[in-house]
Amino acid sequence: MTETITLDAPPKNGGLYVKAALGAVPLLSSRKSDIPDREVRLEGLRVDPEDLAAYCRATGLRYSDTLPLTYPFIITFPLVMSLVVQRDFPFVAVGAVHAENLIERTREISVSEPLDITAHIENLREHPKGLLVDAISEIRVGRELVWRQVTTFLHQQKTSLSGGPKPEPKPDEVPPPPLRTIRVDQKTITRYAAASGDQNPIHTSALGAKAFGFPKAIAHGMWSAAAILGTVEGRIPEHVTYAVKFGKPILLPSTVNAYADHIADGWDLALRHPKKGYPHLTATLR
Fold it and tell me: Is residue 145 in a domain?
């Protein structure tokens, strides 16, 4: 039977990261091999316009009286984190990497609307690089489902799929001329971390990133997923599906190439390394 946790306010991000850090201490955790059957609910949340403005400044998106397509990730993130930092969760939250993201929006959401949010986690599975899980977040206005997201996280560790033959690396390719370039540095990402509440040390600290195998701090995946939308802002329909796959991380600081190709039923988007051409992000808007 599903355990339902009903909240009267969003969890504080500071407390969540304390729990995440404590959860990394083996003596203080009781990890299970499967996902607890647990759901979090929060009803009547209202977006703070100042928080929204900070998010728009960090991502370069336009501020208005409706929420950018990716903004609900920010308000659902604390609920997801409150599930991941539990001591009986299969892996620790610190160092987990955002691998894929799928957003389905049925209509635009007004800043003034009260939002009812639910979140749960499912589909624990092995991957050659570790364990994957899907965090499902849904937002309703009354009985109307207006926004749904599947966030796929990767926790890097050895699994039964590890050690197999690796695919041949693709040769570097000179990328075509971009629609535009986007510059991102630690100041930008620190601003995004504050606006989003995602203070994972792989994004905020060079030392923290090195502790998890990255040579430098890296940009948040959802920062890049938001920033690329600036190339098509004003041309995104109300009812839309946004599917994102994250490639090689964006090391800080970097300048990346942004691409937006208009096709019959939407857009194909990408962020690529400006010299080697490999993707940091590929996405579809449909």
Answer: yes
Tokens 């955002």 -> residue: 98
Number of Cβ within 10 Å of residue 263's Cβ equals 10
Count of domains in the chain? 1
Each residue of 117-147: b (16+ CB within 10 Å) or e? bbbbbeebeebebbbbbbbbbbbbeeeeebb
Reported as a single tens digit per residue, the pLDDT across 211-254 is 888 999 999 999 999 999 999 999 999 999 999 999 999 999 99
With beta carbons less than 8 A apart as the criterion, state whether 280 and 239 touch: no
The answer to whether residue 200 sits within a structural domain is: yes
Residue 166 in domain: no
Instruction: Assign residue 60 a region (left: φ > 0; alpha: ψ between -120 and 50; beta: otherwise).
Output: left
CA 54 to chain centroid: 17
Strands (E) located in the chain:
3-7, 38-45, 97-105, 115-127, 130-141, 144-156, 180-184, 240-246, 254-263, 266-272, 279-285
Taking the whole predicted model, whether its pTM rises above 0.70 is answered as yes
State the Cα–Cα distance between residues 46 and 28, nearest whole angstrom.
Answer: 35
